[in-house]
Design goal:
alpha+beta, five-stranded mixed β-sheet, Aldehyde Oxidoreductase, domain 4, seven-stranded mixed β-sheet, about 725 residues, homodimer
Chain lengths: ~725, ~725
């Protein structure tokens, strides 16, 4: 993506705010404008012909800061120049005068009574269709609230034998994609805008830009070359609005490619504080659950309001809980905006719930695996009234994980073991569409808009089409996602591509198959029902017609192509968030750790991940996905946290922000899959790739607790935190 | 097209043969290779991994000359360099030693007994599907022959009251597109080749390259930006093979953009010599027709063999002729290859037949309009057994033209009037496919592969989709033809795009319409048959549902798109050339001229063109097309001819090759249309754009004859030729 060049292309450098919160007092661009090669030095006031605000949930994020800056690193001025050198030189000469304002950089500060407000106006609704009710709390930094209750809610705690309550916090972490965000925009003479963008959901970006520039959807073209990682950080508009606006201003193609440091100032995971309360019967059955979660969405809401809904809704995980009360807040702070990140709100809650669950097992004197097992939702059971029935077998996953970690066998004295589970809904309502074209030589092209970002979507789509069409996968070509030509797909996220886009591809290929059978049936004089596809030909009991001959029969010449169409749109439902999940994502993690009592350092010796994926379309890719998920999970579990001091982000670089390295890999890492072909996707597949990240933190935390008796409630479990806790335990009462 | 740039792109300059026919004796590239910036100096022997020959009818044309050069200007060596300057500098240093061979540069020379042979080996079949029988004449320069007979053939002349026979010649002319040929090729790491090409038929080029590089069709991607003119000169592979091969060799994107001078060395119209013989009854009815036509296809056949079939097959034009014998030869000469050019063989034959017809009228003492009228095929009458019935009203066109030129009113003494008619088949069997996508905001995208080359195809496709979908044309966007994504379309030529591609678009849009009606019917509880589309909404007697609401109903969310599919494939038939024409193209021309007796200069004072187009989808565009056709026809009628002397092309440049200028426009130029909505295309349209070129030469020639008594048989009707003929007449016996 970042190496795209267009003739006459200009380059952008952004001047960013050094303050967490400040009023813009004066902007002097004269010196910058004079640098040779500089084409424009643009502040918000210079942008015309477009809505200056964007955002999927709320239109609260300005293309360039308007009057006020709300986080350190917020773009204030864009310098557009012939090359990056000139742009950078000029950017250093832009003189902005600020009047500093009091800032809030933590949930505590933001939620304190009388806290400074990050936004003073009510947010405007964004384009995200299914965020039906916006519930800000005026006069506070809470920009959205979510409430959910079923059964008797909190009242049921009165009947509990055991009630446990605790508060857990989850850190701010960054996606750390190998390729930071990049975008190139160009308007043509017909008033059509093309943006080559590092985005996971080109169709959402298309809506955003169409609204921003007030043009029909068909006039906005988003092309997505291969991405160097996404992890949710490239969902919804990020750089596309500014390059679109600057390309329009300058009449030239405009490119903006961020550094890793700037990615930290673009989006991150929402840190969270979760108070979880669980009530059990004497027998250890879950009776009631309560959660109060605060998610820090940073300076602009991005998709945060949806995250708190979706994440909180499944707070109770894979367990049967008759009585539930859930509440969560999306809270503005003067920090980098929080957005989607692998797990979409679930890791924050699972960290709390799965930890409390282990504490409950200890208090009930139950085995933690046993306690989980007896509370699991059954295959086919409704998660919540109106939502999709559970489409996997939790017990099988749990047993596989327990067996692999040798749960029932004693661990060495210096080793601790812990387990954790997760459940996650995918996005719903949802739509994926695909077109499959069979060419005259029995090669095929798939048009679909699933974005390839290293997860292997292109390969999987090719496999699915090849399987249905009975041709070698090497003869299937997958087009680059491009809203001008590849059909609608809601998003490449939510672990949905194989299941939903894959199903659309499967249906489109089946449409081609039906056409092949129909034409061959006519030619061979054999009913279509007695024909099948095999090795590039329609075959019957004794008949055989190769695809090129079928097409020749259909078209009367050596040309033409069969076009198949696949549309997957489960639609709305009575489910609480407006659409049932099309499938459930589920995983179990089991960790075996050692702790260096001298340093507090945790080493994960062995980690077993078991994900119920229905069926692995591509087993190697599934394994690679889940290895990546576990490793990324180890990041926030042991190492990662974006650190702020007086509103300044301290470690936004590849040296000070420490992600897992090869040496941090568990000595043994096993990623296993439950495959009962019970998923909604092609050949019984369902989503994978996010789930296995979620259990990592609670599995490690539970192992630590079981090994040392120390229960930590704050991530990451850094050596210092562990060491302090161990010392406090030794010094204990 | 020519301004496309890719990162790392290399530029090609071709070293061309200075000889019409020669053996390559030695090639010294050392000095050229040493020029800074030069990446490769490539002769045919350096090309690997590809078939070195290409061509749609025969694979007789080498990417770079092999052993022998066969025309002046043939590419011999390719210099690939960082920029065009270095490539040109190095090209001048390439040292090629030739051994000259005897050459044939005219039909007479090529067909003389014992003539030197342009090719000594039998040609290999090309990919063009429907050139079923290859009939070369070994030991001669005839590479293909066509024969057609119906009724009693030539035997019927025995019963004729009047037999007229004469031989007419048609010159070599060049397409003279404003933008010469250009192509950029790039292979990616997956072994996929993308070529941005100035081609009128990307799907033919795809087949050619897939065969050449032995890869599946899906791995070859041909993208066609807007072209600066085509006129047939950009059909079938031209530069694509060499840039594809060089890009593969160098591992870099490679660009080749020709100069106008080089376009003259790439393709031209086939010159022809046509002996026409017509037999009439006493009443002036056509009884028998015979044609023997030699077409000069130059050094390589290109699509010439198909041209002689197609052109000759309709030699008898719009007239009812019971007995017919036709024969034509495609003849190799040592000149620029002859290929498709607006009219595709018909202008050459019509020049002869329409001239002989006027001579017959004189001899029969019939009015030429009257003579034509009494011989016209009727609407619905079969042109030839098994072929499509006539789908227009010739008489109406003829009457319109005669009326507009005031045929029945006396012309001024110094003015002469002439008429001529034409009939042309389009390509068959044939396939066009399209996809129409209706977006959530009631804008739409059309995916089709009709190439925009100035003729207005994009506008027409948008109009057709807009009409069916009842949305403003400004909300319909037409994708760029790109074989990776836009569906199969046989070719943008043969006047077929509006009719065939347009019909595919119409069907695809109707498919979307049916989906809209179906969904709205369910939502409104009204049968679909009582609903219609109006102004972006489905409406009934009292109901109204805007498209965004229909889509929301269909998809359960504010996203998703309706995908419509249109496939038009009339298939094979019993018609003589394997597929009936899907429509007939027909036009009448009427000219009023003056002649300067001192200089011989003809001035066309008034020209009326009447084309039966069924229906003008875009009247302004139809008019512009036909004005261009008449003007281009005036080129070969009065001015244009590629002149060779001893094998050297003398006037291959924009100064010496004289095309019509604004001052050459008839003082009055009227382009009119017969619109009976009787065409096979959308809303009754049929093909336009080629037809009106055809009658120009015979109409002017007939006018000259009627004004001066001088009958010229050789085009162009230059002042010198006219003056000599006038002088000969005055000096006559």
């Amino acid at each position: 993506m970042t190496d795209l060049e267009l003739p006459g292309m200009l380059h952008v450098t952004l001047v960013r705010s050094p303050y967490a919160h400040a009023r813009l007092v004066r902007l002097d661009t004269q010196a910058a404008t004079g640098v040779p090669g500089v084409r424009a030095v643009v502040g918000s006031g210079d942008l015309t012909g477009c809505d200056p605000y964007f955002g999927p949930a709320f239109r609260d994020r300005p293309i360039l800061a308007i009057d006020v800056v709300r986080y350190e690193g917020e773009p204030v001025v864009a310098v557009v120049a012939d090359d990056e050198g000139a742009a950078a030189e000029a950017a250093a000469l832009v003189d902005v005068a600020y009047e500093e304002l009091p800032a809030v950089t933590t949930l505590e500060e933001a939620l304190a009574p009388g806290a400074p407000l990050v936004h003073t106006a009510e947010p405007l609704a964004g384009h995200f269709a299914d965020l039906s009710t916006l519930r800000a709390k005026p006069g506070t930094n809470i920009c959205h609230q979510f409430d959910f209750e079923r059964g008797r809610g909190a009242a049921a705690f009165a009947d509990a034998h055991l009630i446990l309550e605790d508060t857990y916090t989850f850190p701010r972490v960054q996606h750390y994609s190998m390729e930071p965000h990049a975008a190139v925009a160009a308007w043509n003479e017909a008033g059509e805008l093309t943006v080559w963008a590092s985005t996971q959901n080109p169709y959402s970006v298309r809506v955003e830009l169409a609204k921003m520039f007030d043009v029909p959807l068909g006039r906005i073209r988003i092309v997505v070359p291969l991405l160097g990682g996404g992890f949710g950080g490239k969902t919804y508009a990020k750089l596309e609005p500014i390059v679109g606006a600057l390309a329009r201003m300058t009449g030239r193609p405009v490119r903006l490619a961020l550094s890793a440091e700037e990615a930290f100032r673009t989006v991150r995971r929402c840190d969270a504080r979760v108070r979880a309360r669980l009530g059990f019967t004497r027998e250890g059955l879950l009776l009631a659950a309560e959660c109060d979660a605060d998610f820090d969405v940073g300076a602009y809401a991005d998709i945060g309001p949806r995250i708190i809904q979706k994440g909180t809704y499944t707070a109770t995980g894979p367990y049967r809980v008759p009585h539930v009360r859930l509440h969560s807040n999306a809270v503005y702070t003067n920090t980098t905006p929080g957005g989607a990140f692998r797990g979409f709100g679930v890791p924050q809650l699972a960290w709390a719930i799965e930890s409390v669950l282990d504490e409950a097992a200890r208090r009930l004197d139950h085995d933690p695996v046993e306690l989980r097992r007896q509370n699991l939702l059954a295959h086919g059971e409704e998660f919540a009234p109106g939502d999709a029935p559970i489409d996997g077998k939790f017990e099988e996953s749990l047993n596989r994980a327990a067996h692999a970690i040798r749960w029932t066998q004693g661990a060495a004295a210096d080793r601790g073991r812990g387990v954790a589970m997760m459940l996650k809904a995918s996005i719903g309502p949802t739509v994926s569409e695909a077109i499959v074209r069979l060419h005259a030589d029995a090669s095929a092209t798939v048009l679909a808009s699933a974005v390839e970002m290293g997860q292997g979507a292109r390969t999987v789509m090719a496999q699915i089409a090849a399987e249905v069409l009975a041709i070698p996968v090497g003869r299937v070509f997958v087009a680059t996602p491009d809203t001008a030509v590849t059909p609608y797909d809601q998003t490449t996220s939510s672990s949905r591509s194989t299941t939903m886009t894959g199903r659309a591809v499967q249906e489109a290929a089946a449409d081609v198959r039906d056409q092949l059978l129909h034409v061959a049936s006519g030619r061979l004089g054999v009913p279509a029902a007695r024909l099948r596809l095999e090795d590039g030909a329609v075959v019957g009991a004794s008949e055989r017609l190769a695809y090129p001959d079928v097409l020749e029969e259909r078209f009367g010449m050596g040309g033409g192509e069969l076009i198949g169409r696949g549309v997957v749109a489960p639609g709305r439902s009575a489910a609480p968030l407006g659409g049932s999940t099309p499938f459930w994502e589920m995983a179990v993690g089991a960790a075996e750790i050692v702790v260096d009592e001298e340093t507090g350092a945790i080493t994960v010796e062995k980690y077993v991940s078991v994900a119920d994926v229905g069926r692995c379309i591509n087993p190697l890719q599934c394994e690679a996905q889940d290895e990546g998920a576990v490793l990324q999970g180890l990041g926030h579990t042991l190492l990662e946290e974006m650190l702020y001091e007086r509103g300044q982000l301290l470690n936004a670089n590849l040296v000070d922000y420490r992600v897992p390295r090869a040496e941090d890999l568990p000595r043994v890492l096993e990623c296993r899959f439950v495959e009962n072909a019970d998923g909604a996707g092609p050949f019984g597949a369902k989503g994978a790739g996010e789930g296995s990240l979620v259990p990592v933190a609670p599995a490690v935390g539970n192992a630590l607790s079981r090994l040392t008796g120390v229960r930590l409630r704050e991530l990451p479990l850094t050596p210092e935190r562990v060491w302090r806790a161990l010392r406090a335990r030794r010094a204990g009462p």
